[in-house]
């Protein structure tokens, strides 16, 4: 469990997201609360329910980005779902409980990965042994004499003990020699043939009238385990073979039952579900067509957020302590348009503010994944050293802000469209360079690329 303090969480998020302190603080506190809860006496611990968060803000200001970064930060099972993907129970489509099933799947994958890493060294050794067995097989131990032959008094032909001892010895020497060469890495590219378990699942088509998904049971998993594993011969390099064999050995070393029960525990205690685009299912008026279904989805979400037990193929999972963070632009609809019960389930409201020119400037340059850094690195692969003067950066941001004001406010995403336009020519030409070139983007260049478009409002609508 993450033991980061709220301050540390916020400063981690600061590396990627500019501004939006309120939202960052809210998620940081929610996370810390879970840590505090895990330290409480068990009787009280059950009573502390998570305070779910609703993030409200225009499009493209970092709502999804905060959730995404948060997920990487904490080592907790996390899924992000779009509210619009769900349909009411009884309709065709994904039912809301699938988000909990996905969460468990994530937890299991995480748990399995962690366990695989733990046994990696051991698996590596076993894989080495198997490689040796493939390359220099030990002679098979003498099989028990054929019972019929024994009955008929026709015992096995006598084997010269001394000779077999000799061959055994020579094989052992060969194996040692080969083990040495394998370790030194000189054989990595040699092609060998190995037998692998066929990973492609057995196709079982069963028509139930319901999607397999809704049943929450993957029939393939149920029956797949009963059918014998298919083996397939593959020709691969030694390097690849080692990887495949190590994987297989690691699989055998881990106890899946333990992984599953741990994963369910982690899901129940530390799981986080991020529901994006919640505003898109918030419209109470209407009463016909899609609206009915939307309200139905809201009603279906209620018990999950409130705390209920969802059946998954790994067993029941309780959602009482799962943290829900939802987000939406709430441009057209308002949080008050959600059905009242659902509003009440998201007590913490944080607003994300629209981005200013200064915010844009920082977004372009500061985060570790900043756009200008990305473009510079992309073009560097072609031998083009891209550089932006501060005035050019400023100009880009001012234009982005202006266009956002004049047409639709799409937040930081505007920077993408504008940068693409500015760099279009350079991106196209860069591949034809013969030798490395320096390229400085000045304010004049930015103006030149965009001037014609900015002046014409209609054109702006289409191009930027
Ligand atoms: N405050 C910010 N700091 C850094 N990058 C940002 C910020 N806001 C947005 N971005 C960038 O803009 C893009 C869109 O942001 P994001 O996906 O978070 O939007 P959103 O708020 O979820 O919008 P929507 O309501 O449309 O889903 C991302 O690539 C992100 O990197
Ligand atoms: Mg989003």
Question: Which helices and strands appear, and what pairs or packs with what?
Answer:
Elements: H1 6-14, H2 21-38, H3 42-45, E1 53-56, H4 63-73, E2 78-82, H5 98-118, H6 120-135, H7 147-151, H8 161-184, E3 191-197, H9 212-215, H10 219-224, E4 231-237, H11 238-253, H12 256-270, E5 272-276, H13 290-306, E6 309-312, E7 315-318, E8 323-328, H14 340-344, E9 348-351, H15 357-365, H16 371-380, E10 384-388, H17 390-406, H18 413-430, E11 437-441, H19 443-455, H20 457-463
Parallel strand pairs: 1-8, 1-9, 2-5, 5-8, 10-11
Antiparallel strand pairs: 3-4, 6-7
The structure holds adenosine-5'-triphosphate and magnesium ion.
Magnesium ion is lined by residues 63-64, 276.
Radius of gyration: 30 Å
Helicity level: 40-55%
Task: Give me the side-by-side strand order of the main sheet.
Answer: 2-5-8-1-9
Whole-number average pLDDT?
82
Which structural class should the secondary elements be placed in? alpha/beta
Number of helical stretches of at least 4 residues: 20
E-strand count: 11
Shape: globular
Low-pLDDT segments: 205-212
Bound small-molecule species: adenosine-5'-triphosphate, magnesium ion
Distance between the termini: 44 Å
Percent of residues in beta strands? 5-15%
Task: Please provide a written account of the structure.
- The protein is of the alpha/beta class.
- The chain is 53% helix and 12% strand.
- The protein contains 20 helices and 11 strands.
- The protein has a 5-stranded parallel sheet with strand order 2-5-8-1-9, sandwiched between helices. It has a two-stranded antiparallel ribbon with strand order 3-4. A two-stranded antiparallel sheet has the order 6-7.
- Strand 6 and strand 7 form a beta hairpin.
- Helix 1 (6-14) packs across helix 2 (21-38), helix 17 packs across helix 18 and helix 17 (390-406) runs parallel beside helix 19 (443-455).
- It starts with 5 loop residues before the first helix and ends with a helix.
- The structure holds adenosine-5'-triphosphate and magnesium ion.
- Magnesium ion is lined by residues 63-64, 276.
């Amino acid at each position: 469990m993450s033991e980061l303090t709220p301050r540390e969480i916020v400063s981690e998020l600061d590396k990627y997201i500019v501004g939006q302190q309120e939202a960052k603080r809210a998620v940081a506190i929610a996370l810390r609360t879970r840590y505090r809860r895990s330290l409480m006496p068990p009787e009280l611990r059950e009573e502390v329910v998570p305070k779910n968060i609703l993030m409200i803000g225009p499009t493209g200001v970092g709502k999804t980005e905060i959730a995404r970064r948060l997920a990487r930060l904490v080592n907790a099972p996390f899924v992000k779902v779009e509210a619009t993907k769900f349909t009411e129970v009884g309709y065709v489509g994904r039912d809301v409980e699938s988000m909990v099933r996905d969460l468990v799947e994530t937890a299991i994958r995480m748990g399995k990965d962690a366990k695989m890493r733990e046994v990696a060294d051991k698996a590596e050794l076993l894989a080495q042994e198997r490689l040796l067995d493939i390359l220099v097989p030990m002679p098979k131990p003498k099989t028990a004499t054929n019972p019929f032959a024994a009955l008929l008094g026709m015992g096995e032909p006598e084997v010269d003990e001394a000779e077999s001892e000799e061959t055994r010895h020579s094989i052992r020497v060969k194996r040692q020699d080969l083990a040495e060469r394998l370790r030194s890495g000189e054989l990595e590219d040699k092609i060998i043939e190995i037998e692998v378990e066929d990973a492609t699942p057995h196709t079982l088509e069963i028509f139930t009238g319901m999607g397999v998904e809704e049943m929450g049971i993957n029939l393939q998993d149920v029956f797949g385990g009963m059918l014998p594993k298919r083996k397939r011969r593959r020709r691969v390099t030694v390097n690849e073979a080692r990887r495949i064999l190590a994987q297989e050995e690691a699989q055998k070393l881990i106890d899946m039952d333990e992984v599953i029960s741990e994963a369910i525990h982690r899901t129940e205690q530390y799981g986080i579900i991020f529901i994006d685009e919640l505003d898109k299912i918030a419209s109470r008026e209407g009463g016909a067509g899609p609206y009915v279904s939307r309200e139905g989805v809201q009603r279906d979400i209620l018990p999950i957020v409130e705390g209920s037990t969802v059946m998954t193929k790994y067993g029941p999972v309780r959602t009482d302590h799962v943290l829900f963070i939802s987000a939406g632009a709430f441009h057209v609809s308002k949080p008050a348009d959600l059905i009242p019960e659902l509003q009440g389930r998201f007590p913490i409201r944080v607003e994300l503010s629209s981005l200013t020119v200064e915010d844009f400037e920082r977004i372009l340059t500061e985060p570790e994944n900043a756009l200008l850094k990305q473009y510079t690195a992309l073009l560097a692969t072609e031998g083009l050293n891209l550089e932006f003067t501060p005035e050019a950066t400023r100009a880009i941001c001012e234009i982005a802000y202006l266009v956002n004001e004049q047409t639709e406010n799409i937040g930081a995403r505007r920077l993408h469209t504008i940068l693409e336009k500015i760099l279009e020519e350079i991106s196209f030409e860069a591949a034809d360079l013969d030798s490395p070139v320096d390229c400085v983007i000045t304010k004049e260049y930015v103006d030149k690329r965009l001037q014609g478009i900015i002046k014409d409002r209609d054109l702006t609508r289409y191009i930027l």
